[in-house]
Design goal:
mainly alpha; 65% helix
Amino acid sequence: MGFFGLFSSPDEQRKNEVRTGARAPDRTERKQCWDARDNFYSCLDKHDVIDSLNGDGKKIAEKQCAKENKAFEENCASAWVTYFKRYRVADYQKKKTIERLEKEGANKMAVGEIPGKNA
């Protein structure tokens, strides 16, 4: 970064604008973000971490996946980083709930289907 951030390169300035949400990412920047997210997720998977925002998962992620997390945070808008980290937890919980319901014998229903009526 330049002198007190005043003389940073146009690329650095754009990256910062994308990271703060002042500018929408282009196709290449979105791909870089998704690749960084996937690398971070792979590291979390390797260390059996679902929630990297709270508790022991946060501690493990900070220690074991610091490099991947840094790349993730540098390549994505901060709102996206938070969203993806929360989504990971919600998606895991959804899958576990579906597994539990299937084990309990719950019936799958199509969206908009009315119980007791044949479509």
